[in-house]
């Protein structure tokens, strides 16, 4: 197990500057965010200039890219075509894990299962893995639903974000049973009322979580995902550094 960070920690910066910031904060592994609305890697660039997209992903100042966090637009064949290009990029750049959002609440279960079967089939042909991300307001917010979907779709994993199980829930659902499906982990500190608080002021038991991952022989990333907030009293870089040091102390035992 090792500590990484997502470029989404610096959503306001261009990709190269976000990567430089994470290098300055002494990360050696990163995930790159992929979104048409963001400042980092855009799906349209992957479609229109594949070589330029590869150059962007490979120009990481020796930081290792461990995954792509996908936020893709479109539906049906359009969505699958974009996902396929992302798989081609991942294969070309030797990236292992692609994280995708699950459907919103109300999405028919069978429809979601079929979508993930299509994604896993495409990904396996390119030698990469697919993981759904735990997200409040989506199907993946319910651990039971995640467990059933992963059970139905062989090869599908979970990008576990425990904050989305604690936020809004006085009694958080039991997500320990999902550890066997985990391909990636996103971390920040959180409370029932706030998705992100200062490290050490929330409810996330980082020690317990890393112990569960160690017992499950998890060998992949735990990824810092702390967003900037409009509060001059909070040192954003300092919070990211603090969580990196905490996680390194827990996983390097």
Which helices and strands, and how do they pair?
Layout (H helix, E strand, L loop, with lengths): L1 E5 L8 H10 L4 E7 L7 H6 L1 H9 L5 E8 L4 H17 L4 E5 L7 H17 L3 E5 L9 H10 L3 E5 L2 H4 L15 E6 L18 H10 L5 E4 L11 H16 L2
Parallel strand pairs: 1-2, 1-8, 2-3, 3-4, 4-5, 5-6, 6-7, 7-8
Helix pairs in contact: 4-5, 8-9
Structural summary, described in words:
The protein has 253 residues and is an alpha/beta fold. It is built from 9 helices and 8 strands. It has helices at 15-24, 43-48, 50-58, 76-92, 109-125, 143-152, 163-166, 206-215, 236-251; strands spanning 2-6, 29-35, 64-71, 97-101, 129-133, 156-160, 182-187, 221-224. An 8-stranded parallel barrel has the order 1-2-3-4-5-6-7-8, surrounded by 5 helices. Helix 4 packs parallel to helix 5 and helix 8 packs across helix 9 (236-251).
Estimate the global geometry from the Cα principal axes.
Answer: globular
Number of strands: 8
The total domain count is 1
Percent helix, as a range, is: 25-40%
Radius of gyration: 17 Å
Structural descriptors:
single chain, about 250 residues, alpha/beta, TIM Barrel, 8-stranded parallel beta barrel, about 40% helix
Please sum up the structure shown.
This protein is α/β, with parallel strands linked by helices.
